[in-house]
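Box 3.1 A note on notation
Throughout this textbook, protein chains are presented in two layers. The first layer is the amino acid sequence; the second is a C-alpha cell string describing backbone geometry. Keep the layers aligned when reading.
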Amino acid sequence: MCRRILGSLLIISALLLGNLLTPQAIAAGGEGLIVKQSDFGVVKTLDRLGIALERAGIKVFARINHAKGAQSVGLELPPTSVIIFGSPKMGTPLMASNSAIGLDLPLKAIAWKDADGTVKLAYSDPVWLAKRYGISDRDKVFKMMGGALEKFTEMAVKRGGLPDK
C-alpha cells in the first residue's frame, strides 16, 4: 500500500515538474528571468535598448549575433542576439560582496524571434541575482538596477517608449 502511494506521488511529481519545465514555461519567464514582448524586430529592439542604456551613461560592451554564429557552422537559428552592458560604479560593489556574481556581470539581455513570430526580450532579474549569490548587503544597488532595467527595457520594446534625445 505504501509503495503504491509513493509510486503515485512520484508519477504525479514527475508530471508536474515536466509541465513546469516546458519550453513554453521557460519562454514565459523561468526563475529569475524577466521576458517582455517587443513591438520591433530583434535588431531594432537591441538598438533601442543600447540607445537607452548609453543615454543613461551605461556602457554597451558588445553584441553577439547567435543566428550569425549558427550560420557560420552551417546551422540555422531564428534571429537571436545578446547585448552585454554594465556600469563599474554599480557592478564593483556587488563583486566586492561576492566575486562569483561576475558570472552574471556585466549584465546581458537577449532578444529573439519566437516560433510564433513575436520578438521577445529577456534579462535576469537583479533581485534573483542577489538571492543566487547570497548578497544581502547591497539591496539598494539591486533595487536601483531592477528599476533601471525595467525602464530601459520598456523603452526598447514599446512604440513611443524611447524619448527623442
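The chain has two domains: 1-28, 31-157. The radius of gyration is 19 Å.
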